[in-house]
User: Fold these one by one.
Assistant:
Number 1:
Amino acid sequence: MKRQFLLTFIIDGLITVVVAAGLSYNDPAHWLQYLYSAFIFANCIGLSIAALVIYAGPACDRFPIIIRLGCYLGLFLVGGLVGTEVAILIFRFIFGITFNAASHLRTLRLNLILAVIFGSVAAFYFSLRERAQRLRIALKEKELNEERLTRMKTRAELEALQTKVNPHFLFNTLNSIASLISENPKAAEQTVERLSELFRHSLKHSEKSTVTLSEELELIRTYLEIEKVRLGDRLRYDVKCEDSVREVDLPGMLIQPLVENSIKHGIAPSIEGGEITVDAREVNESCVITVSDTGKGFERPADSDGFGLRSIEDRLRLIYQERAKLEIVQNGHCEITITIPLR
C-alpha cells in the first residue's frame, strides 16, 4: 500500500509537469504559478483516486468486466470531484485565493476530464501489475505442486523397490534354512533366530524412508552371521566404518544386496571360501561404501536375476540423480563401490 501511494506521488509529479507546461505555453511569465497550482490539484486528485481504488477497488473486482469498468469510472469521477474541492479549499484557506463560480466550474470540469484520463491509465497499470502478481503466485503454486507430485512419485517408486528387496532376501535365506534342517537342525534353529532378529531390526525402521549408515551396517553384520551359520569357517568378514560417516542417511537395505552377491558369486562357489570386507569412509565430501570379496568375481550379464544391483542403481538414481554412483571393479577379485554425497 505504501508503494502504491509513493507511485501515485511520482505519477502526480509527471502530471504536474505536463499540465503546467500546457498552461504556461501561452503565458510563460506565470509558469511558476501554474506549476504549484498543477502540483496541488494533481496530488489532491491523485491521492483521492488512489485511496478510493485501494479501499473500494477490491469490491469492484467481483463484478464482470463491463460493470467493473463502470465502477472504476465512477471512482475516478468521485476522486476528481473530491480532490478538486480539497485543492480549492487549500487555495482559499492557505493561499487566500478564491474561485468564482465560473472558474470553479471550469476548473472542476477540466479536472474531472484529467482524472478520468490519467486515472484510467493508472488503473490499467495497477490492474496489469496485480494480474502479473497473481500469475506469479499461480506459477509458484504450480511449481510447488509439481515438486510435491515428483516427491510423492519418487517415494512411491522407492517403496515399491523396497517391497521387492525384502521378499528377495527372505527367499534366499529360507532356502538356506531349508538346506540346514536335515543336516544341522541346531544350526537351522540359530539361523531362524538370527533371521527373526534381522527382521525385528528391519521393521523397527520400516516407517522411515532412510536409515543411518551405522544401522545399515548393524543389519549387514546380522545377515553375515546368518550366512556364517550355513557356510561356517568358509566365510570370513570384516565391517569397518569411519566415525565421520556413521550418521549418514541412506535408503534401507542398500548395502545388503551387495554382500549377498559377494556370498553368492565370490564365497559360496569356492571350496576354500573367502573373505568379505565392507568399508565405509569419507572421501572428498562424499560417503564411499566399498564391498569387496576374495572370490573370482562375476559377469554381470550372466547374473540371471541381477535384481540386487538394479535395485541399488534405481534407488540411487531416484534419490540422488547424477550425484551418486555405483562402480564395479573386477581384477581377479570383485569390488563394488557406492558413492553418495554427504550434502
Note: Residues 101-181 form the longest helix (81 residues).
Number 2:
Amino acid sequence: MSEARTVLVTGGNRGIGFAIAQEFLARGHRVAVTARSGEGPAGSLTVHADVTDAESIDAAFATVEEKLGPVEVVIANAGVTRDTLLMRMSDDDFTAVIDTNLTGAFRVVKRASKGMLKARYGRIVLISSVVGLLGSAGQVNYAASKSGLVGIARSVTRELGSRGITANVVAPGFIQTDMTDALPEEQQKQYLASIPAGRFATPEEVAKVVAWIASDEAGYISGAVIPVDGGLGMGH
C-alpha cells in the first residue's frame, strides 16, 4: 500500500462520498469529511462546512490540518441537483447548482493547493458524472457544472503538474443509492436498458477507482476523465 496520507472528502456524510471515505479508511489513511449535516463513517473526522462559503472551507481545512496534518488528498464530491426543463429553469436554479458543484470545487481545490504546493505532493480528484459529457434532459445546470470540472482538472494539471500534484476527474454513471432505489420500476428498467453492463454500480465500485487514482501508483496520470459507468457514456 502507498504510505498513509491525510485525505479530505467533501460531502462525505452520504452516498458516494461516504463510500469514498470508508475506502480510504480501509486502506489505512487519515480521513476527514466535510458535511453540512450528518456525519462521515466511523473512524473519520467530520467537520461541518458549506462549499458555497469560502470562510467555512478555510475553517474546515484549518481544523483538519490541526488534527490530522496537512491535506495531501482532496476529493471534491459535494453536489446538489435542481432538475427541471430548460424553459422552466430559473436563474437561481442554474446558479445555485453551479455555485455548489463547480465554484464549490474551485474553492476546495484552491484551499487544498496551498498545502500541496508546500509539500510538493498532492492528489486532487473531482467527482463529476456521466451526465457532464453525455448531457441529460432536465439537467442543463447539473451537466454544465459537472463538465466544468474537466476544465478545472486540466488547467490545474497544467499549472501544478510539475510540483508532484495530479488532478483527475472520476465520472460515475448510475449508482445504486437510495435515490435510484426510489425510482419507479419502469424507469429503472429504461435506465438499465441503456447501460451496456446491464446493472447499476455500487458506491464501493466508484470509491475503489477514486482511491486508486489518488494513490502513488497513479502518479503519472493527470487531467484524465475516468468513467465508472458500465459503458453508458462511451466516446464522450
Note: DSSP finds eight helices and seven strands in the chain.
Number 3:
Amino acid sequence: MIDAIQPAFGGTSAGAADGSAAAESSDFETFLKMLTVQMQNQDPLNPVESTDYAVQLATFSGVEQQVRTNQLLESLTSGLLSTGAGEMVSWIGKEARAPVPVQFDGAPVPIFTETDPAAESAELIVSDSYGREVSRQNLPLGEDVHYWAGTNDAGSPLPNDQYRIEVVSYLGDEEIARSPAQTYDRITEIRTAASGPIAVFASGETMPVEQVTALREAAG
C-alpha cells in the first residue's frame, strides 16, 4: 500500500514546477485522502507499520517545503530583476567611486574633487566621524584627483578614522557651492528599494547606485 501513495509525491513536484499555490494545496489534500483510505483498507492481519506512515508524512512535508522555498526564491529573483538590482549583482566585491567617507589608516588616500565653474577660489574641508571640522585647506580650481595626506592644518597626522571631505566653492567671499569629494570604497551589497537599487559600501554608507561614477576591480 505504500507504493500506492507515491503518485501523490509526483503530483506535488509537478505543482512546484507550475508554481501554483492552488495546485500545491490540492495535492496535499489528495495525499491525506489517499493516506486515510490506505489506513481504512489495510490488511488487519498485516497492518502497515506506524513508522511507514511517519516516513510518508515526512517525505511529503519535505517536498512541500521545497516547493515553497523555490517559489520564494523565484519571487525574490523576480523582485530584483524588476527593480534593476539583479543586473548589478556583479558590482558586489568591486570598488566604486562615490561620495563616501574616506577611511584613513595612515597612508595617503586618493580623492576626486570638482569645484563650481564660476568659483574664484575653493577649500577642502575635512570632518571626523563625530562631525567635527579637523582641517581646512585651499584647493585648486577645476576637476582633479588629490592624495589627501590625513593631516590637520598644522601638518600633524590625524588619527585613523573615517573622514568626510567636502569641496566648497567661493565667488569672492560668498559660498556658491558645496559638494562631497569622492573616493573608492568596496561594495558589499545591492539592495532593492522603491526608488531603485541601493549600493551598500564597506564603510557602512548607503546610496542610490546612480551616485556611483566609476567602478573597478578590488585591489588584490
Note: Residues 124 and 149 are 12 Å apart (CA to CA).
Number 4:
Amino acid sequence: MQQIKILSVNISEKKGTIKVPVNTISLDNLGVEGDAHAGNWHRQVSLLGKESYDKMNTSIKHKLNFGEFAENITTEGFPLYTMKPLDRLVCGNIILEITQIGKKCHGSGCEIFKEAGDCVMPREGIFCRVIQGGVLAPGDILEYQPRLLNIQIVTLSDRASEGVYEDKSGPLLRELSEVFFASIHRGIKIQNTILPDNVEKIKACIKKLIQNKTTDIIFTTGGTGIGPHDYTPDAIKPLLDKEIPGIMELIRVKYGMQTPNALISRSIAGVAGKTLIYVLPGNPKAVKEYTDEIFKTIEHTIHMLYNIDSH
C-alpha cells in the first residue's frame, strides 16, 4: 500500500480565510473539530500535497506556508489528485473516504490567484468525509487504499450452461468493462458466471450477490425477450429497491429507430441496496450498444448511491 506522510494539519475558524497550522486535529463524524468547513456534507476534510505547493512556489513572489490553500491536511509522497472518489486514506483507526477531486475556483476572490494568475487547489486538492475519527498530527502516515469495484457478470442461457454453446456475451461484457474502467482509472474485480434460464436459480444467484454487500455492479445477459424461456427481468425486478427506467428507455428508442426488433427487449436497470443491476440482452451486438450508453452514466450513478455530490 502507498504511504503518505502528513507534514502539517491546519484549521480556520471562518470560511474564506487561510488555515493556520496546529499541533493536532481531532476528527469526528462532521470533519475537523473547530474548523469552519466541518459539517454534515461530503467535503468535511480537505487535503493538498507539498508537490502541489512546489508547483506554485515557482510562480509566486513569497514562499507559501502550509494552510494557505485552506487545506486541513498537507501531505507528501503521493499525487493526491490521482485518487478517485470512494478510495480511502487510513491511519490507525482513522478512516477518511475520498469524495471529490478538485473544486470550483474562486478566481479573483482568491488572493493567490490574484497574485499568481493561477491556483492549484481547484485542480489538485482533494476532499474527504470521516468514516471513523481520531487525532492526526504532523509526522503521521496515511495509508492509501484504492477502492476496487466488484463487478459480477451473469450469463443466462440453457445452452451455454450445458456447454453446447459458447458464451460470447459474458466475455465481451468483461472486455468492454475492463476497457471502460481503465479509461477512467478505476480499479475493478470481475467474475463471470453462467446459469440456465431458470427463474429460481436466477433469483437465488442475484439475491446472494446483493446480500453479500460487496457487489457494486451486476450485469446479466440473456433472457430479456418474450420467448418461453425469457425470465430474467421477471426474476430480478422484484429484487430491486429502485428502478432506473430512463437508461433502458433511451437505448430501446435509439436503437429501435434503426432496428425495430430492438423495441421488443424487456431490459431493466435498477438499484438493490448499494448494488447497481443492469439486465441486458444476450446478443453480443446488443451488449455493445447497451454498454455504450450505460457507461456514460455509471460513475455518476455510483456517486449518487454513496451520497457524493458530483454535479
Note: The chain has a mean pLDDT of 91.
